Amino acid sequence: MRIAIDILILISLFFAVAGTVGLLRMPDIFTRMQSSTNIGTLGVLGVIIGGTMYAIWQYSDYTMAVKIIILGLFYMITTPISGHALTKAAYRHGYRPKEDFVVDSYGEDLEDDD
Amino acid sequence: MKKTKFAAFLSTAIVCYLFWLVLTGQIISIFRGGASASVLIAGGAVSVLVALFSARFFIHDKAFFMFNPVRLFIMLFYLFFIFAWELIKANWDVARRALRPGKLKINPGIVKVPTGLKSEYALSMLANSITLTPGTITMDIADQDDKTYCYIHWIDVTAENGEPAGDAIKGTLEKWIRRIWE
């Protein structure tokens, strides 16, 4: 059981490292947000599942297990909202990547409104 | 602002009370015996107070919609199988892009994708699911000519616009979300 928990936490470590490397290498804010969701999803989920299993099998502490699950639930509800707000705010503020977007329907429709 | 109905207030209070039971650990004490009465009563008072203030933000139409066990079951199935699998695939894809040596293989763009969902909860769940998958972020949702569109920033644009892009991004997610909420 201990090995399964360690493997889960290793997987989430791998994705957290990949997300951080992406964060440093990506050229602009939008692609950086994309890469950082890597940390926010599997990077956190692995730790949460591993922690729940640890609480159940190593401590037999069900209160702790349930609390970790609730933590993961609220995390999953709230993180996309901040990601969405950040990218939208960056775009509306006039931030554009150095190389142009392949398609930019949002910009076209915003111009139509003005 | 909409007027808060009693049903909306009641279901918000029930949800709050369930969260109170879980977070204080009382839900396990109830099954094993030995739940403390003072904690249960205090939780009830706090839930009612919170529901009084927040019911009008939390629930806009049918109040007891989510207390249907079939819907809850489909939602759990969606979260743990359909969505989890999409999440793993997308995570692996973005991680590979980030770790690949040499020039980054990215092709970013913002595409406009139509959706057939109507209910507020379904739309927010779809937008959240898309944002949670690495590689795609919902930037805005807009109504245009009686149709709802999502503007999605996509790290690797393979289809320029409309339906094909929507199929590539949403996959089967939209079908499952419609089953849950509509």
Walk me through the structure.
The complex is a heterodimer of chains A (114) and B (182). By secondary structure, chain A is mostly helical. Chain A has one domain (2-96). Chain A has five helices and no strands. In chain A, helix 1 (2-25) runs antiparallel to helix 2 (29-40), helix 1 packs antiparallel against helix 3 (42-59) and helix 3 packs antiparallel against helix 4. Chain B has two domains: 6-67, no CATH class; 69-181, no CATH class. Chain B is built from seven helices and three strands, in the order H-H-H-H-E-H-E-E-H-H. With 182 residues, chain B is α+β, with helices and mostly antiparallel strands. In chain B, 60% of the residues lie in helices and 13% in strands. Chain B has a three-stranded antiparallel beta sheet with strand order 1-3-2. Chain B is globular. The chains are: A mainly alpha (114), B alpha+beta (182).
Strand content of chain A: under 5%
Biggest interface goes to: A-B, 44 and 42 residues
Order of helices and strands of chain A: HHHHH
End-to-end distance of chain B: 24 Å
Mean pLDDT figure of chain A: 84
Report the uncertain regions of chain A.
Answer: none
Tell me how many strands of chain B there are: 3
Fraction in helix of chain A: over 70%
Total strands of chain A = 0
Morphology of chain B: globular
Mean pLDDT of chain B: 81
Q: Give the end-to-end Cα distance of chain A, rounded to a whole number of Å.
A: 60 Å
Shape of chain A: elongated
Order of helices and strands of chain B: HHHHEHEEHH
User: What spatial order of strands do you see in the largest sheet of chain B?
Assistant: 1-3-2
The total tally of domains of chain B equals 2
The structure class of chain A reads mainly alpha
Count of discrete structural domains of chain A: 1
Report the biggest beta sheet of chain A as strand number plus sense, adding barrel if it closes: none
